[in-house]
Amino acid sequence: MPTQWLEQREPRMGGGGQQTESSEPAKGDGVGPDGERGGSAVYTWEEVQRHCHRSDQWLVIDRKVYNITQWAKRHPGGIRVISHFAGEDATEAFVAFHLDPNFVRKFLKPLLIGELAPTEPSQDQGKNAVLVQDFQALRDRVESEGLLRARPLFFSLYLGHILLLEALALGLLWVWGTSWSLTLLCSLMLATSQAQAGWLQHDYGHLSVCKKSGWNHKLHKFVIGHLKGASANWWNHRHFQHHAKPNVFSKDPDINSLHVFVLGDKQPVEYGIKKLKYMPYHHQHQYFFLSKLLNTFHGFLYRITSTSIEHTKPKDRPLYVCMFLESHWFVWVTQMSHLPMEMDHERHQDWLTMQLSATCNIEQSTFNDWFSGHLNFQIEHHLFPTMPRHNYHLVAPLVRALCEKHGVPYQVKTLQKGMTDVVRSLKKSGDLWLDAYLHK
Questions:
Q1: H helices then E strands: how many in the chain?
Q2: 239-274: per-residue pLDDT in tens?
Q3: Which of 65, 207, 375, 438 is most buried, by the most CB atoms less than 10 A from its CB?
Q4: What residues contact residue 367 under an 8 Å CB cut-off, 6+ apart?
């Protein structure tokens, strides 16, 4: 996903430059057990971890304890993404998601209720303190070397080639009509422009292009709303949950398959033991392909039911072919880096370990970079979500070295293996379900 955490909404100012009530915490936030504000109390991790419920949420950032129970409801990124860290240390996620964490911290001051006791470690849940410190050192190096700064020309040319493809396709149809050969050519052009627009809106949505959040939001809404016909708020609300807790059941909406698929190694067994059979899951690697056709058919039905059938003309054919092609393009690129990876319930891992267990890379090449919108560097993107994509290849060797130092697997696959692993993963999960369904 609602845009990124707190900095995505500028505080509304009243007369004289004062913040209005909407930017102040609601009654009950920032109040310690003694009923006073000021955050002078000290807490243990055990005490913090008890406040992890929807109606009672605390979290820790840089050893400071914050009561976000009421604030979470007004959180610009949505209540869910911040609530996923209730009762936990959210320091690494807080830094990763914000362009200017220091700017955001001033909004946290009224929510402060105390800090961790001096005897408490800085990391919760037994996380590796050395690994966390080493990753922070890497982030400091990334910032000092300017790898979080974008090159405006790169993204301007990228937007330009999308608009050019759109204009050429529509122009060809306008001038030369809708023969099948021209339909196929224009469908390929439109599918390419739409897929690339999807990667570009992803850049703007992550605030990785412009220095100011506001310009990122405006351009994000233009690309996803006017070029893609989708909602920026909907995308942000879902996508940042995915980044916050990738491949974590009940927290990552991208792996909520609505009982159509069973994913990973644990969910299939859980379904099998409970004798849940919403679908013939042992065939899911086969109906996965059918689901893409149904998705295109759904778009076709929407098109012809939103206008009368007699108004559906041959000029609409490229749109249907485009939907089919783009649907497959999008699904294969996005799933090959996540679907074959580990999926589990919440394990409270540090940022590096959590992201690496849920992501893998596809090897670099000029084609792979363009085809995937540089999401072949999925690992680097997940570790540094606000980093402009043209810098992923620069930080990748540093990330790999850090992973080797701490024994964290860093996976890189060919494009072909990435795609075939999607099908293999679905088949493996289906077989696990069938075994548990029949024998456990």
A1: 17, 7
A2: 999 999 999 999 999 999 999 999 999 999 999 999
A3: 207
A4: none
> For all residues of the chain together, what is the average pLDDT?
87
Percent of the chain with pLDDT over 90: 73
Check if the beta carbon of residue 21 is closer than 8 Å to that of residue 115: no
How far is Cα 249 from Cα 159, in angstroms, rounded to an integer?
A: 35
Q: Give the pLDDT score at 327.
A: 84
11 token code pair: 């505080």
Is the separation of the CB atoms in 96 and 386 below 8 Å?
Answer: yes
> Which pLDDT band holds residue 315 (cuts at 50, 70, 90)?
low
| Opening angle at CA 120, ends 117 and 123, nearest 5 | 125
Angle at 206 between CA 203 and CA 207, to 5 degrees: 90
**Helix 351-358 to helix 392-406 angle, to the nearest 10 degrees?**
110
Residue 65 token pair: 């304890």
Instruction: Provide CB contacts within 8 A for 224, sequence distance 6+.
Output: 197, 201, 204, 205, 230, 231, 232, 235
How far apart are alpha carbons 332 and 438 in whole angstroms? 31
Q: Which of the 8 DSSP states describes residue 312?
A: -
Residue 88 amino acid letter:
E
The SS3 of residue 290 is: helix
Task: Render pLDDT for 428-438 as a digit per residue (tens, 0 to 9).
Answer: 999 999 999 99
Spatial distance between the Cα atoms of 374 and 334, rounded to a whole number of angstroms: 11
How many angstroms separate the CA atoms of 128 and 130, rounded? 6
User: Which amino acid is it at 284?
Assistant: Q
